[in-house]
Amino acid sequence: MTLRAAWSTPAGSIRVVASTRADGDFHLDGDRSGLEQRRRRLVDLPWTMLDEVHATDVLHVGAPGAHDGATGDVAITRCADAVLGVWVGDCAPVVIASDDGWIATVHAGWRGLAGGVIDAAADALDAVGAAPRRRALLGPCIHPCCYEFGAADLALVADAVGSAAVRGTTRWGTAALDVPAAVTASLAARGVAVAERLGGCTGCDDRWYSHRIRAERERHVVAVWREAS
Q1: What is the pLDDT of residue 1?
Q2: Does residue 31 carry a pLDDT above 90?
Q3: 93 and 86 in contact (C-beta within 8 Å)?
Q4: CATH number of the domain to which 21 belongs
Q5: Domain count, the chain
Q6: Is the separation of the CB atoms in 105 and 86 below 8 Å?
Q7: How far apart are CA 86 and CA 209, in angstroms?
């Protein structure tokens, strides 16, 4: 069952949907005709989904559907009825929205978190003059219970986000990365709170796809848009 959230802002309503396995595969590299049909069934508006590469490149979506398929891990827009989609299979899909209608989406895997992808999104919003009052949503992603992680890379992420809270433990007792904690710490450093979460651990809950636990190629998506007034 598709998960949904909505926020009211002075600039209009922000709508968010998180797909599940029942909604099909949202991997960008596949049958584009089939992907477009699935996207339109989920939200019948023009979409932008980036070719995510675990980096920090930001694209400014100046019209609904602009930059669809372009390379990047952060998209921002203030256009009404422009859907921004983050397709993931364990990485964290993050939405940031400001009170004046700006929206940013972030594909936050461990490399992106270590590289400052949350800061890149916040900097992009600052650069366009987005209102400082912002809130965030975290979609389904892998949790520490399922995400065994090496000590060196764990230290890299912890140093990058400035929080030891990213260190967790798997169900089987080994060192793990806490992706939600890393996202929360990165956002908090920029004065943004995670106001809502949609979904849980992609490793534990097979409503979502997981590359790490089930070696699945398919991807689910979190999509956000601001409704036209």
Answers
A1: 82
A2: no
A3: yes
A4: 3.60.140.10
A5: 1
A6: yes
A7: 14
Mind listing the pLDDT tens digit for each residue in 165-189? 999 999 999 999 999 999 999 999 9
Q: What is the pTM of this model?
A: 0.97
Q: What is the pLDDT of residue 222?
A: 98
What is the extent of the structural domain holding 217?
Answer: 3-140+192-226
CA-closest candidate to residue 180, choices 168, 172, 171: 168
* Residue 182 within a domain: no
Residue 153's pLDDT is: 96
3-state SS string over the chain?
Answer: CCEEEEEEECCEEEEEEECCHHHCCCCCCCCHHHHHHHHHHHCCCCEEECECCCCCCEEECCCCCCCCCCECCEEEECCCCCEEEEEECCCEEEEEEECCCCEEEEEECHHHHHHCHHHHHHHHHHHCCCCCCEEEEECCECCHHHCECCHHHHHHHHHHHCCHHHEEECCCCCEEECHHHHHHHHHHCCCCEEEEECCCECCCCCCCCCHHHHCCCCCEEEEEEECCC
Q: How many residues does the chain have?
A: 229
The answer to whether 53 and 73 have CB atoms below 8 angstroms apart is: yes
**In which order are the strands placed within the sheet that holds 220-226?**
3-9, 12-18, 220-226, 83-88, 47-49
Strand bridging mode 83-88 / 220-226 = antiparallel
Query: In this structure, is residue 78 part of a structural domain?
Result: yes
